[in-house]
Amino acid sequence: MNLKRKRGDRDGTFAGNTPERAIIDIGSNTVRLVIYGGSMRAPTVLVNEKVTARLGRDIAANGTLAQEAVELAMRGLKRFALLLDDLGIDDVETVATAAVREASNGGEFISALEGLGFKPRILSGEEEACLSASGVAGAFPGASGNVADLGGGSLELVTIEQGEPGGAVTLPLGALRLPDYRDEKAKNPLTDMRKSLEKVVRKSGWNLAAEDDYTPAPLYLVGGTWRAMAVFAMQTRGHPLSDPHGFELSADEAQSLAELLTQESADDLKTRQRISAMRADKLPDAAVLLLALLAQLKPSGVVFSSWGLREGLLFDRLASHGKAQDPLLAGISVFATQRGAPPTLATRIAAWTVDAAPPAMQTSEMGSERLRMAATMLALASMQIEPNIRLPQAIDWAMHKRWIALDGAERAMLAAAIAANGNALDLPNELGALASEEALEEAICWGLAVRLARRLGARSARSLRVSQLFVRDDLLILRLASSHADLFGIPTEKDIKLLAGRLGLEWAVEVVSDEELLAGKAG
Fold first, then answer.
1. What is the CA radius of gyration of the chain?
2. Of 79, 156, 465, 505, which residue is 20 to 30 A from 102 by alpha carbon distance?
3. Is the model's pTM score more than 0.70?
C-alpha cells in the first residue's frame, strides 16, 4: 500500500478532524475498520465498517479458521487496504484477538494480512483484557471496579482501580461459544447453563465476591452484545436517552433484565429497532452469562461502555497530559469549533457570565464549571443551525450525541441551557425525567446568561472587554464603559430582564468610564 500521501490529497475529506488514525480489529465474529479524527482524547468516528466473517465459528470444533470465513474476511480486508491507501492514512494499527491466536492456521492468516501491507499484532488474552480496561478508563476517568469484555470467541475479565488495569483473565465464553453450554435436553436448561458458566468463572479464580475484604464495585460491560442488551433495557424502560454508553443499572435491575432476556426469543428480539439479527441471536445466552457474572462478582451495579479495546489502543498511546484532559470538553471543543464556536470565544463568554449566578447557585453541586463550559460551547455552536430547525437539533446534540464522561442529568442540563440560549423556556418533558427541577433551573440561567453575552455585542471580543455582568446585593448589574453605553439596546434590555427574573433579582445598568470599568474588573 502507498501509505504516504500529502495531506492536501485529502482536503475536505475529514475537514477539521485531524490527526487521522485507523484501527483494524480482527475479532472472532467481525472484522472491523474504524477511522478516527478530532481530539484523540475523545476521538470522532469518521468511518466504521465491519464484515461479519465469523472467523471463530469452528475453533471449538476443529481449532481452525474456516476457509469460507477467511475468504470473507480477506475480501473485506482488501477493501480496507484500498480505502486507507486512497485516504492517505498512514497511522494504521491492526490487531487480532481470540480466533486468530487460538487457530492452528492463524499464522497463515497473519501472513496473508502482511501481504496486504498490514502489520498485524496478535493480542494475548491478558493484553486484550487490559486494553479493554484502558478503554473504560478513558471513558470513565478514575473508574474502579471490574471490566467484562464479551467478544465472539472469549470473555475477558480485568480489574480496574482508579483507571489502572489490574489482574486479568481470558475465558472461552465468547458469544459464539455460549451455545455450547446450553443443553436443551436438560430438565432445567437455563439453570444448568448458568451453573456451568459460573463454574468456569469460579475455576478461573475470578470469584471476587468470596474474598474477605471484597467491596461491591461497578461491573463495566464492554462489547456489542452487551450494548444491544442495554438498548433492550432502555427501550423496555422507556428511557429518554438513546445512546447505551454510560447507561447504568443497579445489581437488582441488572438481575431482572437478564432474567427477562433469558425468556425472550431471538425472533422477537429481531423485531426491535436497533437490535441486529446477529445480536438478537446472542442476547438470550449472553443474559445467562450476565446472571453468572452477577452471582460470582456481586457488583454494586453494571455500567455499559461503548469504549473498549479499540479506544484503549488510542488512550494508551496518549501522553500523560493527554490522558489527563477532560474527555467531555475535548470532544465538544472540536465539535463546536467546526460550528463557529471556538474554545477561545466560549471561554471569554463563560468568564463573562460566571458572576451572573447568586452565591447559592455558584456553590451548587448540581452543576460544575466543566459542564457550564460545555453548555456554553454547544449553545454558541447551535446558533449556526438554521432557525427553523435549531432547537430540536441542538437538543438532540445534548441528549443523544455520544459525549464522554457525561450522565443523564448532565445531558438534561446541557439541553436546558441550549434551549434557554434560544429563549425556549418550556423544556421538553424528558428533561424532567433525567434531572431535578433545581438543576434544570440552574442550567436555564446558564443559557440566558450566554444569550445576553452573545447578543450584547454580536459575540465581539471587544464588547466583552468593555462590559461586566455581576451580582451585588439583590441586583443583577450590567456595567458598561461609557464608550459603549449604546450597546444597551432594546434586545439587551429584554435579555437582562429575563435573566434577572429567573434569578429572582432586580436589575440595573451602570455606565462608567473606561478606566473605572477596567479597575472594577481588576478588583
1. 26
2. 79
3. yes
